[in-house]
Amino acid sequence: MTLYRHISTHAKERPTKIALDWPGGQIAYADLLQQVDEATELLREQGARILAVDLENGPDWIVFDMALMQSGICSIPLPPFFSASQLAHVLNVSGADAILTDDPIRLRQRTGTLLGSTEMPVKVAGRTVFWVKTKLAGGLASASIPANTCKITFTSGTTGEPKGVMLSWAQINRVVESLAGAVGMTTRDRHLALMPLSVILENIAGVYTPLWAGATVVVRPVSQLGLQGSTAVEGRTMLDALSQACATTAIFIPQTLQATVEALEERRNTSMHLRFGAVGGAPVSRRLLDRAVNAGLPVFEGYGLSECGSVVCLNTPEANRRGSVGKPLPHVRLQISPEGEVVVFDQPFVGYLGSEPDGQGDWRTGDIGEVDKDGYLHLHGRRRNVFITAFGRNVAPEWVERELTLEHTVSQAAVFGESRPYNVAILVTAAETMLDEIETAVARTNRTLPDYARVGRWILADEPFSPGNGELTGTGRVRRETLFARYAKRIESLYNEAEIS
């Protein structure tokens, strides 16, 4: 069944039930259905086949997203943290016919000469956005996109150029149904989106899943959530947003969870309604999960990939094992290969943009892990990231980095040590942190690690890792090649100095 049909059912059974809630108002399910119909008609009149979406979190984003699916137009959400060169790459390789934007001036500054000169205003959910045609319509790229592709999500991954993952509704639908059941989503829930809606995890788990269940989706501009560009999170603002929205569900990434936990530890009397907080996007430390629970924040780690339509595994209140990423969702079957790689079966995504359609249904994730006797998946890092020390020991850097960033003085870390006698780290620290405090934090972390995984020496980063400077992916994964290239001379000097001394 399509999402549109589910919304139609909710509109008939509970026409006045609030579907969308935002600072400017609310939309009930009956009104949402009407607005999706109107937006669908508008889209069909324009005749686009591929449409990029550059909108701030709000009701118009959601209305247009559902209208695009209903009209059979392929959508390309544009992440706000993509650089100008990444956006140009996305538009060029996709051949998008047009872009919906709420800020055409900013869009033109970021995309240069790729846009046409006209901007057609369109009003949806009481908000005015602009339809801007590109100069790319009818290109070879758009002709190569299979007809069953409803969405192309571009992931920055670990390389500079984003890769387009083509998804069909058939694949997304299975994830949505499984998630609604696993989370126990009901019409009484209020889900607050804590990430840009262009992030596929929030798009599918934070919009489609609540609407499938007849719940309320609460959307706020990212600035009102405490997200400060691509580099920082103001935890107290995010905590206030969760409290004021009476949010019962939310999705965190490690950075937003840590900021919220720290704020909640300072203000334990904050009124909270959260019953289920999912954590994903990047590895998260078990100690941080413990801190969250001790602070009264019910959080559950999960795991997913864009190629699998987002969520693959999830801990739940009924089946929760901290330190794991949970059990596979009902529609998922996975195994561990002889090399230790996680392989997901029966998840046929359409394929990568510019490549032959996949259609195999089996996906080698690139993650190394193991499944325990009770069926919980434990991840140990990316297969490509594991390095071997000079003493022949394998180290998954994500593991060490998770432990380092639990120190309140260390906000970000990247660990290296391939073929070296000891490991080194690039650290981003809290403002005005003294060197002896950093030394103490590293020493304290080392005491929790086996000797081969410990950090022998470290340097301070010039600036925080972020999607904006190319050193993080959109969901918070470290882009190691970029960082190593930037700091290679200083990393090498750490080993040279040690040899001299």
Question: What does this molecule look like?
Answer:
The chain has 14 helices and 28 strands. With 501 residues, the protein is of the alpha/beta class. Strands 2-1-11-10-14-15-16-17-18 form a nine-stranded mixed beta sheet, sandwiched between helices. Among the domains are: 140 residues, Rossmann fold, CATH 3.40.50; 114 residues, ANL, C-terminal domain (GMP Synthetase, Chain A, domain 3, 2-Layer Sandwich).
In short:
The chain is α/β, with parallel strands linked by helices. The protein is built from 14 helices and 28 strands.
Point out poorly predicted stretches. Answer: none
**First-residue to last-residue Cα separation:** 68 Å
CATH topology value of the domain at 28-167: Rossmann fold
Shape: globular
> Helix fraction?
25-40%
CATH architectural type of the domain at 28-167: 3-Layer(aba) Sandwich
Biggest β-sheet description: 9 strands, mixed
What share of residues are in beta strands?
A: 25-35%
Strand order of the largest sheet: 2-1-11-10-14-15-16-17-18
CATH class of the domain at 28-167: Alpha Beta
